[in-house]
Design goal:
Two copies of one chain form a homodimer. By secondary structure, chain A is mainly α. Chain A is built from nine helices and no strands. Chains A and B meet through helix 1, helix 6, helix 7, helix 8 and helix 9 of A and helix 1, helix 6, helix 7, helix 8 and helix 9 of B. Chain A binds a DNA duplex through helix 3.
DNA sequence: AAAAGTTTACAGACCAGTCGGTCTAATTAT
DNA sequence: ATAATTAGACCGACTGGTCTGTAAACTTTT
């Protein structure tokens, strides 16, 4: 793993815990023992450029995880497996890891517009990927339903994190069914 | 409006835009021209104590707004009015204001536990208030449905903010119906 | 193939500015 | 008088970012 990759993956990790403002360059560099010069060599525009790379990287990592959970299953069992993946992430991180995109997106209205666009792009990628999955299973109105499912999951994730209890995510299994049949 | 109230309401405003880490004490004090000594007189424990007060204050303000939107309407039209309130908030703030609680809750796993508990308390208050509202309209399974509705709204709010388009919130109107009838 | 030049990557001291927080003094209200 | 509140100078730690410099790996020239 080269210096650039280390920077991006570590930033992605810290972002999930502390968001844009809470993630400090010095903290990142210290944790992987990379000097500042290297950071500004790979990311001349500094923090914001690094954050954008981390957002895209985190989004990609997430889509792979979800894709694996969905693969080869019916729509309902696949989505339930995806919910289990989210629950596991929360529990494994002791409820410290937020959704990697939401963690940044929440402050996005007040930071550089290019960062918001990166979040937007990742969200859209997730949604389209899910829509394709539903389409392949002969479901109708896949755009609308995939949008709705992501909204539900995103909200349930946040509520579960705040409560330190995955019950909101579990509840989604019931309503996944309702949405698919709607 | 006394100094304490000014501190709390201003902090609540800034929190919505920048979250816990992005909200600086100096910025708050400067914007309302209050000296530091006053802050530490009213909130001896400093930033965290102020943030908690702001979270509770913001939660209370929100519940009043929503209550007003719901009042005297059927469940479905009331909830649609509530969705409109959220959309209006986003648009009026140029998509800069996040949900006042989510903005803090997202980092809550990594800051003082008492702050997370304040977020939790507000969320629970919202949910119970909505459950009571549904109950009074003769709807069944009100606990589960109010939890689900808040998860949906929370997620739709975040997605709408990231997209700078209230279409995700609008979409909820369709699924409010579905949830109520489930 | 050797030397010279050029690019890429790593390294960290250093900077001005800001952070949350403390402290003492002055002012105001009771 | 006494307590509550306002006022702001000040502190060390930390922020993101700049700067100069080194070292190795490529080309290019001879």
């Amino acid at each position: 793993m080269n210096t650039r990759e280390k920077l991006v993956s570590t930033t992605s990790k810290i972002i999930r815990k502390k968001g844009y403002f809470g993630t400090g360059i010095n903290e990142i560099l210290k944790s992987i023992e990379v000097p500042k010069g290297s950071l500004y060599h790979h990311f001349p525009a500094g923090k914001d450029e690094l954050i954008i790379a981390a957002v895209l990287y985190g989004g990609e990592a997430q889509i792979l995880k979800y894709g694996e959970a969905l693969r080869g299953k019916t729509a309902e069992t696949g989505l339930n497996a995806m919910i289990d993946v989210m629950s596991k992430e929360l529990i494994d991180s002791n409820f410290e890891d937020a959704c990697p995109i939401a963690a940044v997106a929440l402050a996005a209205g007040n930071i550089d517009e290019t960062i918001r666009k990166a979040c937007d792009k990742v969200f859209k990628g997730w949604q389209q990927s899910l829509a394709g999955y539903l389409e392949r299973r002969g479901i109708e109105n896949t755009t609308e339903k995939s949008e709705q499912l992501y909204a539900m999951f995103e909200g349930a994730y946040i509520l579960s994190q705040a409560h330190r209890d995955v019950k909101y995510l579990e509840l989604q299994k019931k309503f996944v069914k309702v949405v698919l049949e709607a």
